[in-house]
Amino acid sequence: MCIFSYERLHSYIGIIDVNNEQFLEGVDDMVLYFALGVNLSWGSWGIVQAKASTIDFDYLHYAWLRYDAYFYLKDLYYHESNYL
After folding, report:
1. Would you give the DSSP letter of residue 39?
2. Which of 12, 46, 51, 75 has the most beta carbons within 10 angstroms of its beta carbon?
3. Maximum C-alpha span of the chain
């Protein structure tokens, strides 16, 4: 399963041969891998802000959404590769 559009990657970078499946699958794996870290860090940030911030915002709900995305993507990554 490709979560990152090959055509979008080609139009963004412009020099990639969209027929190079191995390279594009590697980029897709990297995007998914780093999305795990992003969601985990923003979820942790939300928990800290729930306690520390004086801004009226539901940080715990935000953290829950980020952790939910983390576990969803982690499940995808486990099924897509052997890296984790």
Report:
1. H
2. 46
3. 51
**Structural contact between residues 39 and 64, judged by C-beta atoms closer than 8 angstroms:** no
Q: Take residue 65 and report the two structure tokens written for it.
A: 């959404």
User: Within a 10 A sphere around the Cβ of 36, how many other Cβ atoms?
Assistant: 18
Amino acid, single-letter form, for residue 12: Y
- pTM greater than 0.85 (yes/no): no
Residue 30 near residue 82 (C-beta atoms within 8 A): no
Average pLDDT, whole number, for the chain? 81
Tokens 């829950």 locate to 64
> Which residue has 């191995």 as its token pair?
22
Nearest to 65 by CA among 50, 43, 47: 43
Report the 10 Å Cβ neighbour count for 35: 19
Residue found by looking up tokens 């935000």 in the block: 62
